Amino acid sequence: MKFTRLKLPEIIRIEPKIHADGRGSFWEWYRKDLYAAHEIMDQFVQDNQSFSVKGVLRGLHWQVKPMAQAKVVRAIRGAIFDVAVDVRPSSKTFGRWVAEVLSNENRRILYIPAGFAHGFLTLSDEAEVHYKVSQFYSPKDERGIFWNDPEVGIEWPDVGMEYLVSEKDNCNPLLSSFKKSRV
């Protein structure tokens, strides 16, 4: 596996080694010892999977302490534009974002630690996303920011149609509302 720190160094792109032959292919996408060797020490307690059609935009969400979640995200079918935003008010990179295209073709994986909002846009006709999380889902500890917050300035790609966004995600507050609070 190849581990690459992105422009927000807490976010790590993981590229598994693919073993392919005439029968198909095999790869490890999660291995605790290799993750730990690259400072990914989280204990994952829950696996989630979502299905989305083209243009679906999910996010941007995170959970606060004591239920703050780290995530390992991958697209097992289709392609997504996967985004992480630093929402730690005391961080030098507060409000900055990184993104990667994750797909079943490139098999890239994204590690997103606690303290980062997460969301994605479906680029392909359909996509299934699988992610491991380090804490159980807790509605009372969930937070969100508006996906198109101009202060954050995420450069969402054009998918040739209007994005399909939930009412909840369209009503999330701007990041500026979290600057002085503990997230």
How many strands, what sense, and barrel or not for the largest sheet? 6 strands, antiparallel
Please give the share of residues in helix: under 10%
Spatial strand order of the main sheet: 1-2-10-7-12-5
Element-level helix/strand string: EEEEHEEEEEEEEEEH
Q: Span from first to last CA?
A: 32 Å
The radius of gyration is 16 Å
> What count of helical segments does DSSP give?
2
What overall geometry do the principal axes of the alpha carbons give?
globular
Task: Give the arrangement of secondary structure elements.
Elements lengths: L1 E4 L6 E4 L3 E3 L2 E3 L5 H6 L8 E8 L2 E8 L7 E7 L1 E8 L10 E7 L5 E4 L3 E7 L3 E8 L8 E3 L19 E2 L1 H4 L13
Parallel strand pairs: 6-14
Antiparallel strand pairs: 1-2, 2-10, 3-4, 5-12, 6-11, 6-13, 7-10, 7-12, 8-9, 8-11
Question: What's this entry about, in short?
Answer:
Helix content is 5%, strand content 42%.
Outline the structure in words:
This protein is mainly beta and 183 residues long. It is 5% helix and 42% strand. The protein has helices at residues 32-37, 167-170; strands at 2-5, 12-15, 19-21, 24-26, 46-53, 56-63, 71-77, 79-86, 97-103, 109-112, 116-122, 126-133, 142-144, 164-165. The strands form three sheets. A six-stranded antiparallel β-sheet has the order 1-2-10-7-12-5, with no helix packed on it. Strands 6, 8, 9, 11, 13 and 14 form a six-stranded mixed β-sheet that branches. It has a two-stranded antiparallel ribbon with strand order 3-4. The protein is globular, with a radius of gyration of 16 Å. The protein starts with a strand and ends in a 13-residue tail after the last helix.
